[in-house]
Amino acid sequence: MMLTERQREREMGKPLFETKQEKSRLAYRLYLLSMINGIFLVFVYRASHVPGEGEDGRWAWIGLFGAELWFSIYWVFTQFRRWNRVYRQTFKDRLSQRYENELPIIDVFVCTADPTIEPPTMVINTVLSVMAYDYPPEKLNVYLSDDGGSDLTFYALLEASRFSKYWLPFCKKFQVEPRSPAAYFSATPEPLVNPSQAKEFLSIKKLYKEMVDRIETTSVLGKVSEEIIKEHQGFLEWGSGSNPRDHPTILQILIDGRDPNVVDMEGQRLPTLVYLAREKRPHHHHNFKAGAMNALIRVSSGLSNGQIIMNVDCDMFSNNSGSVRDALCFLMDEENGHQIAFVQFPQAFNNITKNDIYYNFLKVISQIEFPGLDGEGGPMYIGSGCFHRRDTLCGRKYSKEHITEWETQDNRKVDESIDELNERLKGFASCTYEENTEWGKEMGLKYGCPVEDVITGLSIQCRGWKSVFFSPKRKAFIGVAPTTLDQVLVQYKRWSEGNFQIFLSKYNPLLVGHGKIKVGLQMGYCSYCLWAPNCLATLYYVVIPSLCFLKGTALFPKISSPWLIPFAYVAISKYTYSLLEFLWCGGTVQGWWNNQRMWMFKRTTSYLFAFIDNLLKVFGFSKSTFVITTKVADQDVSQRYEQEMMEFGTSSPLFLILATIAMLNLFSLVGGVWVVIMSLQTTVMAPLSLQFVLCGIVVAINLPVYQGLFFRMDKGRMPSSIMFKAVFFALFACIVSLL
Ligand SMILES: O=c1ccn([C@@H]2O[C@H](COP(=O)(O)OP(=O)(O)O[C@H]3O[C@H](CO)[C@@H](O)[C@H](O)[C@H]3O)[C@@H](O)[C@H]2O)c(=O)[nH]1
Ligand SMILES: [Mn+2]
């Protein structure tokens, strides 16, 4: 529908999106004020009651003071992401009224890296879901980057390109949601009401099943059969000697959307679909996902050159076909759009259990903290489900004067043959292309940091841009959350390591952000950058007071002392607040308790390793790595996950720390109580009661660890080698502290 110029102008007054501010409430401010008072009194007590020179527990006391000081400072940082929250809303109907014929070209990047832990079937479901966006297909381009360089993945994508000719029209005809076939078929029963729909549903489901069977048979075989190889010349690129770490660029345009004759079963045009495995050579560092993204940015620039780039991890399928339009409501808004560099959607997961034992869902982060950052100038870029302007991603600074002309035509060369095109594009993905360029520094995603996304987003914001966090009612993206404790802790190690690395680098938010982004946003960034150093204070808090309890050294006020009040107040109100917040976000009480456990586990293991690795990096002993999260699990592991049983299973050094802390607290608790009983005097207990409570809480939170160590028989239990070592170390620590 074309609007007349007048109608258009009338419409112009109305924005394409709306922002609601959630100002901090009075109750929250009172809470802040009272907490600050409480914390202050705790410090007064700590400073005025330090045990004298030579007295018992002087150093333990001073250390505890340090830990509390750290917690307080950190707590202040975390308030900045709560203070000023904003929630957004879009008007897609206005967008299509005004711009339906001038919608820009969109390039979607999907990254995968390993066909065993990221199965090709999962990858193509993500690809199909984004191909099926509610968007003009000739303006939509999907690129799959395969760092695994696997012909199995290529084969799956080839199958998907054929299946899309059935799937896309089906989705559009029946307004199907979600548009990942796997997710759709597993959630949707046969539509019985409409017989013609039912017929199509069944036939397309059959097609899908047959395709999956073929792909999975091939994956089980581990190689593509001769017959299939004959079907497409693309397979020839996998020569006999090619391996994932050493091969030339492989590039195949599976669907060429610019060709009006390439159509689906209903005669409608199709989005472009490209397979890319960038060149890999053993002596060239490939920079993990950031390297893959930069190759994609360049290759796509030579083909579709969309002004908007969206990227998803291979497990994050689109669950909402309207997301492209949602994002455009922000970026194309006449009033405010020109300042917005990227629109970040939250990450949701489809395998979260009721009480979310590993706190994967990040409820509080996506419902409170990111809206809070948004209020301060914009959320971080978190790597998946994010729409960028191409030019800001490539380093452009914000300027008020610059007006984006939305282009609706791509810039392909008309007289180029397919072979010439292929060669030109392949050059963009070669190992040497980036030599002596700004790629990985000022252009594209930054290299050298395990959280390439966060550091890239930060530098974009520091160039003057804003970002937006948008969480639509129907979730935009859904991925797979890790299902074992080890995977979760390793993932957090990567994140906290990367975040802390940013803090230690010249990209420290307080330095680069100074004068460029709001103080609130700098503090917000710091609250994540400083995850890792939390390990020190936390380790101290869960070890020393317990050992001192065993020994009978008091570190807290007596139960009858008025000084107990600020301690109790701070602890109780902080945890009550966090519980209420968690429940408000839709969590359960058990889920909150699980989150507290994960909070402690992460801080004592992932963050500790991240902290140490960063120090080693500073001294040049260690290099960045990227451990890819597994997206599949064995049947019995999945079953235990469903039952919310903690999965230990491997003898990871992370678990040794967990088990040692758990045992140490158990011994301290039992030993300390034993001493009190033996002395037959309740007065002994009075000065130690807070330590008794603290130690008791640590033991309670560790119940799944004791179960894993002593009471479980399944494969997910703690390995006995860990048990012996943990008992030994814990006993050793107890004995040493008693000496
Ligand atoms: O060398 C590599 C390594 C990883 N990936 C891809 O990167 C994505 C993210 O990897 P994953 O193991 O799933 O990590 P997550 O911890 O789930 O990822 C989060 O954190 C990462 C930064 O640590 C971001 O890059 C991701 O976008 C963000 O979702 C996946 O699609 C991988 O295939 C590559 O393309 N090349
Ligand atoms: Mn992931």
From TrEMBL:
Keywords tagged on the record: Cell wall biogenesis/degradation, Glycosyltransferase, Golgi apparatus, Membrane, Transferase, Transmembrane, Transmembrane helix
What is stated as this protein's family in its record? Belongs to the glycosyltransferase 2 family. Plant cellulose synthase-like E subfamily.
Q: Which residues form a coiled coil?
A: none
Listed under GO cellular component are:
Golgi membrane; plasma membrane
Q: What is its main location?
A: Golgi
Task: Give the residue spans that cross the bilayer.
Answer: 30-47, 59-77, 525-543, 563-593, 654-677, 689-710, 722-738
Report the locations given in the UniProt record: Golgi apparatus membrane
Q: Which residues bind Mn(2+)?
A: K289, D313
Q: Which residues bind UDP-alpha-D-glucose?
A: E118, D147
Q: Name one GO biological process term.
A: plant-type primary cell wall biogenesis
To which species is this protein native?
Answer: Nelumbo nucifera
Q: Which InterPro entries match?
A: Cellulose_synth, Nucleotide-diphossugar_trans
Job description of the protein = Thought to be a Golgi-localized beta-glycan synthase that polymerize the backbones of noncellulosic polysaccharides (hemicelluloses) of plant cell wall.
Q: Which residues form the active site?
A: D147, D453
- Glycosyltransferase among keywords: yes
Q: Source organism's superkingdom?
A: Eukaryota
* The name this protein goes by in its record: Cellulose synthase-like protein E6
Regarding the membrane, this protein is recorded as: Multi-pass membrane protein
Q: Which GO terms describe its molecular function?
A: cellulose synthase (UDP-forming) activity; cellulose synthase activity
